[in-house]
């Protein structure tokens, strides 16, 4: 793991982030290779398709107990030949007006938004998905 969870700053609710009831902290680990695989982090998941990785990699996902739905994926900076699909659940969050779509944002460790990712908001199943080409920290915004 390339980050020390005990040294990470507490996040504050940034403008545009989806405010939710904090949930329990989740840490998950999976070894995924060239054949692909899935990392389940409670209600959230990362799907790595076949051919995305050249070698076998130990992947860790940490969902923080916070009012922002946020996940840290490691090893930080890992790049994919074919994008991986991150799906984050917002089932425990209050509803938004129907004209506000949720999306996934690539953020800094302090939840500064760095890049909005093209996302698919599935309001029926209360989840949003986006393709990732590398690992870092990601959050749900509106």
Structural description of this entry:
- This protein is mainly beta and 142 residues long.
- 0% of the residues lie in helices and 46% in strands.
- The strands form two sheets. It has a six-stranded antiparallel beta sheet, with no helix packed on it. A five-stranded antiparallel beta sheet has the order 2-3-6-10-9, with no helix packed on it.
- A hairpin with a 2-residue loop joins strand 2 and strand 3.
- The N and C termini lie far apart (29 Å).
- 32% of the residues are buried.
- The N terminus is likely disordered.
SSE layout and pairings?
Layout: E1 26-32, E2 37-41, E3 44-48, E4 57-63, E5 70-74, E6 79-89, E7 103-107, E8 113-116, E9 119-122, E10 127-134, E11 137-141
Antiparallel strand pairs: 1-4, 2-3, 3-6, 4-5, 5-11, 6-10, 7-8, 7-11, 9-10
Attribute tags:
6-stranded antiparallel beta sheet; disordered N terminus; mainly beta; globular; 142 residues; 11 strands; 5-stranded antiparallel beta sheet
Helix content: under 10%
Summarize the biggest pleated sheet.
6 strands, antiparallel
Strand order of the largest sheet: 1-4-5-11-7-8
- pLDDT < 50 stretches: 1-14
Structure summary, number of beta strands? 11
Provide the β-strand percentage band: over 45%
Mean pLDDT figure: 87
Please compute the radius of gyration using only Cα atoms. Answer: 14 Å
Query: Structural class, judged by helices and strands?
Result: mainly beta
Distance from first to last alpha carbon: 29 Å
Contiguous helical run count: 0
Order of helices and strands: EEEEEEEEEEE
Shape: globular
């Amino acid at each position: 793991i390339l980050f020390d969870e005990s040294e990470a700053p507490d996040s504050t609710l940034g403008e545009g982030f989806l405010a939710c009831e904090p949930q329990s902290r989740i840490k998950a680990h999976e070894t995924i290779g060239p054949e692909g695989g899935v990392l389940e982090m409670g209600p959230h998941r990362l799907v790595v398709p076949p051919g995305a990785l050249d070698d076998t990699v130990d992947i860790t996902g940490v969902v923080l107990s916070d009012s922002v739905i946020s996940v840290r994926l490691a090893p930080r900076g890992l790049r994919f030949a074919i994008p991986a699909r991150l799906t984050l659940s917002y089932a425990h969050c209050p509803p938004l007006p129907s004209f506000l779509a949720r999306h996934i944002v690539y953020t800094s460790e302090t939840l500064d938004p760095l890049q909005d990712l093209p996302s698919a908001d599935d309001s029926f199943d209360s989840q949003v998905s986006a393709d990732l080409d590398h690992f870092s920290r990601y959050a749900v915004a509106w």
